[in-house]
Specification:
2 helices, alpha+beta, 5-stranded antiparallel sheet, 4-stranded antiparallel sheet, 274 residues, 9 strands
Length: 274
């Protein structure tokens, strides 16, 4: 009887083919999972970068306005928005995550701070324009419990800038109700981003406009020009994934002495030596 030869794959060959196919499939699946994870991490990093960059833009643009006065003064040192110890840039030593300053937002040249002088017509505390809120024109930023707050304005009983204004928590015993009739408003979303670090520092460069050779502090009747520069250090992380962190600045990774973002105030402060 004549035998018939059959062509086809043996069981062993089929098993080998299946194993090879599974290996290829696993490799492709691993590449897909890795690519998806990387894309997700990239999206999270981009989201955090956008949040912090937007926050930094708001802060730098507003801080640059410090000292701006919409009206001409008889003498440059009479700018009510640059009164030393009253309305100039203030960073409390006890809370460097807060900065306060003043500028003429409505360009009327008036500011409602009772301790600047004794003339109510000068600081406009009577609110002659009839607005709901008086012209306090005090602004700032402060970090509290991972949230950055922005100071829109102060109450009618406000005095000069001091560290109690930086207290954003009404439960704090030093919280001043009379200084917060409008008060602090959250600038960042606590459900999205946690700001882990916000620090401000101030550097002043002094120029003696009348006698550059003498410099500062100068002699009697010398006009001293102060050019202020604010350094901002900002760090944050995502609430949904705390491993996604971002630190804005130069050479900031793990270096406490590293530099942040520098903001130069557009309007210099002028003091007259008495």
């Amino acid at each position: 009887m004549k035998s018939i030869r059959q062509n086809g794959a043996t069981l062993i060959e089929l098993l080998i083919s299946v194993v090879i196919s599974l290996i290829i499939l696993a490799s492709l699946l691993g590449m897909y999972v890795t690519s998806t994870a990387n894309s997700s991490q990239t999206l999270k990093s981009s989201k955090l970068n956008q949040e912090l960059t937007s926050l930094l833009t708001v802060m730098t643009n507003d801080i640059r306005r410090a000292g701006i006065n919409g009206q001409a003064m008889p003498e440059p040192d009479q700018n009510p928005f640059w009164k030393p110890g009253a309305t100039d840039i203030f960073i409390p030593p006890s809370k460097t995550s807060c900065i306060l300053y003043s500028y003429d937002a409505d360009l009327d040249g008036t500011i409602c701070l009772q301790d600047i002088d004794s003339d109510p017509d000068t600081h406009n505390c009577a609110d002659v324009k009839g607005d709901i809120k008086p012209d306090t024109n005090i602004y700032g930023f402060s970090l509290e419990s991972g949230v950055v707050y922005m100071l829109d304005s102060l109450g009618a009983e406000s005095h000069e800038i001091d560290d109690t204004i930086c207290i954003t928590d009404p439960a704090d015993p030093q919280y001043r109700d009379d200084k917060h009739s409008v008060g602090w408003k959250p600038l960042t979303d606590p459900n999205t981003t946690r700001i882990s670090k916000l620090e401000f520092s101030l550097a002043e460069n002094c120029i003696n406009r009348d006698d550059p050779s003498t410099g500062c502090p100068g002699n009697t009747d010398d006009n001293l020009v102060y050019i202020d520069e604010v350094e901002i250090r900002l760090q944050g992380e995502l609430r949904e994934d705390s491993s996604v962190k971002l630190n804005l600045g130069r050479n900031v990774d793990g270096d406490p002495s590293s530099e942040g973002i520098y903001v130069r105030v557009r309007n210099p402060r002028v003091d007259l030596v008495e």
